[in-house]
Amino acid sequence: MQRVDLQSYRVLTGKNLEAAVSAGAREIVLADGAVLTPTARDIIRRAGLTIVGNHASGASVQSPRNGSSPQATRPPQPASSPAPQKSARSDEAILNSPEATVIKQEMIRVGKKLWDRQYVDGNGGNITYRITPERVICTPTLLSKADLTLEDFCLVDLEGNQLAGKGKRTSEVYLHLQVYKTVPEARAAVHAHPPHATAYAISGRVPPNCVIPEQDVFVGSVAISPYETPGTREFAKTIVPYVKDHNTILLSNHGIICWADTVTHAEWYVEVVDTYCRTLMLAAQLGNGITRIPPEKQAVLLEIKKRLGLPDAKFGLAECQLCDQPESPGGITVCPTACPHNRPGGCGNKNQDAETLIKTITDEVMAALEARAASLP
């Protein structure tokens, strides 16, 4: 069996493992404390490689939560030996690895894009990427997202402790870390203040679903979390009830956060939801109700979304429930057909009730005016 010695590497990337596989490796020898990037672990799993140690060193590789990655074989340790600790040097190696450099370049592009589209202002907004199960790259505090460089990024653990990087980590990193703790499949998160989506957040409203296909497929129903002071752990906890079923959450009196499999995709969701909110505002100025996608057509969109592996709180609902989400009580959205599964206080016939109420009030006002006019000399 072909064995390849990779003990000279402190951080092993996908390229390192691809080279080993191309060389015919079936077993690989890693240095003690070596760090495997997610791409490297995927290649090990796909290629069926065996990780071995020797008398001098053994490799310790953490498996993801689903246990799909191989576990390294460690040499026997004396009972008195302390557990091996990840060194500051290895954390610096993660932050400066080739894979991290590619990620940071992507974060720089996304930061500039957020700034150009006026989704962030001043030093507002932040971007993160989970590069290993326990390590997260994040943008620094007090720096415009338009001015990011490769040297500015930080590395933190899932508790927010900064482990590497010259810049000081953002104070809002707890919000991102809560996403990663609650949603294991999340790899990237973007927090921003896009004006139209934030307008909904400060008014306590969520945009309706079943209006525009792109919104329903890539974002879907949007949640809104209660207000807490930004940068605190309490602020981070406000998203816990919503983040598993929603990749986009409005943060009351603040902005939004979106999570995805890549930084670019998370930024896409920011674009999609803000454009959607802006379109709804423009449509409201026309003075007509907003029509909805029929529930049977919405079910087709939901199947597309399920195939893409995107979350949605509507999975499992009856077809007639899929569009049962008015923008707000008495809002501009035309309600769907009545559904026997509707929740109390759901959409129902609120528009019709509102029209009846308006007609009644108008009739009473007109009658009062006519009576007053008749009493005048």
How would the blueprint of this fold be written?
Layout: E1 3-6, E2 11-12, H1 14-22, E3 27-30, E4 35-36, H2 38-47, E5 50-52, H3 88-95, H4 98-116, E6 126-132, E7 135-138, E8 154-156, E9 162-164, H5 173-182, E10 188-192, H6 195-203, H7 213-218, E11 223-225, H8 233-237, E12 248-251, E13 255-260, H9 263-284, H10 295-308, H11 350-375
Parallel strand pairs: 1-3, 2-4, 3-5, 11-12
Antiparallel strand pairs: 6-7, 6-10, 7-8, 8-9, 10-13, 12-13
Helix pairs in contact: 1-2, 6-9
Overview of the structural elements:
The protein is elongated and about 110 Å long. The longest helix is centred in the C-terminal third of the chain and has 26 residues, at 350-375. It has 377 residues and is an alpha/beta fold. The model is unreliable at 54-85, 326-338 and 343-351 (pLDDT under 50). Helix 8 (233-237) links the parallel strand 11 (223-225) and strand 12. Helix 1 packs parallel to helix 2 and helix 6 (195-203) packs across helix 9 (263-284). The protein has helices at residues 14-22, 38-47, 88-95, 98-116, 173-182, 195-203, 213-218, 233-237, 263-284, 295-308, 350-375, and strands at 3-6, 11-12, 27-30, 35-36, 50-52, 126-132, 135-138, 154-156, 162-164, 188-192, 223-225, 248-251, 255-260. An 8-stranded mixed sheet has the order 9-8-7-6-10-13-12-11, sandwiched between helices. It contains 11 helices and 13 strands.
CATH superfamily of the largest domain: Class II aldolase/adducin N-terminal domain
Proportion of strand residues: 5-15%
Query: Rg, please?
Result: 27 Å
> How far is the N terminus from the C terminus?
112 Å
Helical fraction equals: 25-40%
| Strand line-up in the sheet with most strands | 9-8-7-6-10-13-12-11
- Tally of contiguous helical segments: 11
Order of helices and strands: EEHEEHEHHEEEEHEHHEHEEHHH
Q: Low-confidence segments, ≥5 residues, pLDDT <50?
A: 54-85, 326-338, 343-351
Shape: elongated
- Summed over residues and divided by their number, the pLDDT gives a mean of 82
CATH class of the largest domain: Alpha Beta
- Domain tally: 2
